[in-house]
Write a structure and sequence with these properties.
Elements (H helix, E strand, L loop, with lengths): L1 H37 L3 H5 L1 H46 L7 H25 L1 H4 L3 H8 L4 H29 L4 H15 L3 H21 L3 H19 L8 H25 L1
Helix pairs in contact: 1-3, 1-7, 3-7, 4-9, 4-10, 4-11, 7-8, 7-10, 8-9, 9-10
């Protein structure tokens, strides 16, 4: 029994770890190849500090391309594991619900509203000023080509992360616990996986909503749409020049509107799903 419990925990933990390993290998090989292509000057290669800055610059310029490649390599593995799980779980977790166009719209709207609202509340809390690391991550996420960012952040990342965290991790925890506990535990793992406090808090809160949407509709397409909408708007807001955000009144209005929309869509989904 003890060995079975250990195996059950390992089944929950290993899929994201596999993605982490694939991402690390892709980044390492990608940076080495890009260094060969760019061929930095001899002075850079001989100066340790200059060489480190050179490698960081190459990584930041190509981070989203490497992320997309890692996601594309991981998605087939995750899909295979997910299909095996669904065949085994279908009797327990029920049949996918019919989702109307209005409900798909509400799912996307909830993703966008949650993205803005949670980011604004986290920024307002001052956590970004307390914990280091977020600025470097943001530079890597939003430092390249806009179209690559959209493909990587708004399409590839939602697909692979939802297969991993809602398709595999959440459903496997759900076999051992009730829905509420599975939502919290899978969201906690999703937050910790991002490996910095600011992103982790955002991912944890978003992860609870993603698992809730998945549970409501019994299909992985619901959290995928939610996640894609949230990430797409995050890219647009980060890269866009929204002058109203400079003023305190503009930011407060954004928080009020986005939070109101988030609460409204949660209530509508709860009543209609």
């Amino acid at each position: 029994m003890k060995e079975n419990r250990i195996l059950q925990i390992w089944r929950i933990l290993y899929p994201p770890l596999l993605y982490f390993v694939i991402s690390y290998v892709v980044q390492l090989v990608g940076i080495l190849l890009l260094m060969q292509i760019h061929q930095g000057s001899a002075e850079i290669l001989q100066d340790p500090q200059a060489f480190q800055e050179y490698v960081i610059r190459i990584y930041n310029e190509n981070a989203m391309l490497l992320t997309m490649i890692a996601a594309l390599l991981t998605i087939p593995i995750c899909f295979f594991l997910y299909q095996k799980d669904r065949k085994r779980q279908k009797k327990e977790f029920g049949i996918r619900k019919q989702i109307s166009m209005l409900q798909w719209f509400l799912i996307a709207l909830l993703g966008m509203a949650a993205s803005i609202s949670l980011n604004d509340w986290i920024a307002l809390s001052g956590i970004v000023l307390i914990f280091d690391g977020f600025e470097q991550v943001a530079e890597a996420l939003y430092g390249g080509n806009l179209w690559i960012e959209i493909l990587a952040i708004a399409i590839a990342a939602p697909l692979v992360e939802e297969l991993l965290f809602r398709g595999l991790v959440y459903q496997r925890i759900r076999e051992l616990a009730n829905a509420r506990a599975a939502m919290i535990l899978s969201a906690l793992y999703f937050g910790v996986y991002h490996m910095n406090v600011v992103q982790g808090i955002y991912a944890f809160l978003l992860g609870i909503l993603l698992a809730w949407v998945c549970e409501k509709y019994q299909t992985l397409w619901a959290p995928i749409l939610f996640h894609a909408a949230a990430n797409f708007l995050s890219v647009i807001f980060t890269e866009g020049n929204f002058s109203y955000r400079i003023s305190v009144v503009g930011v407060l209005l954004e928080i009020i509107i986005s939070t109101g929309l988030m609460i409204y869509t949660i209530v509508r989904i709860h009543r209609t799903a």
